[in-house]
Write a structure and sequence with these properties.
single chain, alpha/beta, Spore Coat Polysaccharide Biosynthesis Protein SpsA, Chain A, 7-stranded mixed sheet, 7 helices, globular
Length: 191
């Protein structure tokens, strides 16, 4: 069975996305960045036959314009961990969940994570800021407990999540940068 790729995103709405970035560059510019990054990511992964694609969007009433060659899942209520677990539990088998604000994220990163799941229970794509841009599990049921007591939006998010996987086989893939600040955006533009 093909793994499920879940793109976990916010509906691109002014004032609702990339708030830390918006505080530095303005809400319109932050929205433009987010919309462009999300659109590019979906375009890169939508036609790939190695996985089944689902878009988990919040708010649940949120929409995207254009063609939709993917399943649309609601994130529902709860903190980030609850919503990510809910999305992952909907998958019938192996699942890879990625964030939507990683400009360098490409199909090869997702394929590498899928390959690593052959010998690992979970795979993470570490982010430069201490979080992660990708989480994959071989069996969706594992998502029920891995996001408990995680200090989200902190440099401890990945280490807290890894602590919840003690005794499990965990693999890491390439470290990438997300964009939360104007300095992050400038670094991403140089790459």
């Amino acid at each position: 069975m093909k793994p499920t790729l879940v793109v976990f995103a916010r509906a691109p709405r002014l004032g609702r996305v990339k708030r830390r970035l918006a505080a530095e560059i303005g809400a319109v510019a932050a929205l433009a960045f987010y919309r462009r990054t999300l659109t590019r990511l979906l375009a890169r992964v939508a036609g790939d036959r190695r996985w089944r694609l689902a878009l988990a969007l919040t708010p649940d009433s949120g929409t995207l314009h254009g063609a939709r060659p993917w399943r649309r899942w609601k994130q529902g209520r709860g903190d980030l961990g609850v919503r990510m677990a809910r999305a992952m539990l909907r998958a019938p088998g192996a699942v890879v969940l990625v964030g939507a604000d990683i400009p360098a994220l490409a199909p090869r990163h997702i394929a590498h994570a899928c390959a690593r799941l052959r010998s690992a229970d979970a795979v993470f794509g570490p982010a430069e800021d201490g979080g992660f841009y990708l989480v994959a599990v071989r069996r969706p049921g594992l998502a029920r407990r891995i996001f408990a007591d995680v200090r989200w939006s902190s440099r401890d998010a990945l280490s807290d999540t890894l602590r919840n996987l003690a005794g499990r086989r965990v693999a890491l893939v390439e470290r990438l940068s997300d964009v939360d600040t104007a300095a992050d955006l400038a670094r991403a533009a140089r790459r």
